[in-house]
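Priority: medium. Attachment 1 of 2:
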């Protein structure tokens, strides 16, 4: 009886510890960011008010993109999060000095999830450097969008397994590249491969 109680109690402690870790993993640690920025009292007051507002906006975004069955539309969710972070950065930048802004941008780059796709800057570079025509540009956008959707749709399969996640990422990345390269000349293909060679799965970065 005593052993059973001890096992039950120990299991409960492990679950609580696990939940605590999960809570720490979720969301940005704004207290840590605040310390790194070394804000003065006026800046701290603005920072607290602004981040509290954006935390609420982020929660609303998650709720808006979660189905009644609890399924998160990750493409729509992360797309909106990207927009939210951009707006938050613009507002916070208005009361930070140059060094503080560098610290803020470095923290956000390290601690926020990036959308799994070629970002807008890379897309623009590809279009410009390769001098894509209208049809090629459409294929580039469509293949990139398809990659993002396929990778997120497989989330429940690879979740928690970084090796499997990387395997799925490479699989869909190869499909994305094949679709794009099917419309390119040999010269464009070489330039394209050079531009995207640094793109890797989250677990490989």
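Attachment 2 of 2:
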């Amino acid at each position: 009886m005593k052993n059973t109680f001890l096992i039950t109690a120990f299991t409960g402690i492990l679950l609580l510890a696990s939940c605590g870790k999960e809570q720490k993993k979720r969301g940005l640690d704004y207290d840590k960011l605040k310390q790194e920025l070394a804000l003065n009292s006026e800046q701290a007051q603005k920072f607290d008010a602004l981040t509290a507002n954006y935390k609420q906006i982020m929660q609303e975004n998650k709720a808006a993109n979660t189905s009644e069955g609890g399924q998160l539309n990750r493409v729509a969710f992360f797309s909106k999060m990207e927009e939210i972070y951009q707006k938050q950065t613009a507002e916070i930048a208005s009361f930070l000095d140059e060094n503080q802004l560098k610290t803020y941008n470095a923290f956000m780059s390290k601690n926020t999830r990036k959308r799994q796709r070629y970002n807008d800057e890379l897309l623009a570079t590809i279009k410009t450097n390769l001098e894509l025509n209208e049809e090629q540009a459409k294929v580039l956008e469509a293949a990139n969008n398809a990659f993002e959707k396929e990778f997120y749709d497989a989330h429940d399969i690879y979740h928690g397994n970084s090796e499997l996640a990387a395997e799925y990422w490479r699989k869909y990345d190869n499909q994305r590249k094949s679709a794009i390269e099917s419309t390119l000349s040999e010269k464009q293909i070489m330039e394209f491969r050079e531009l995207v060679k640094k793109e890797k799965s989250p677990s490989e970065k």
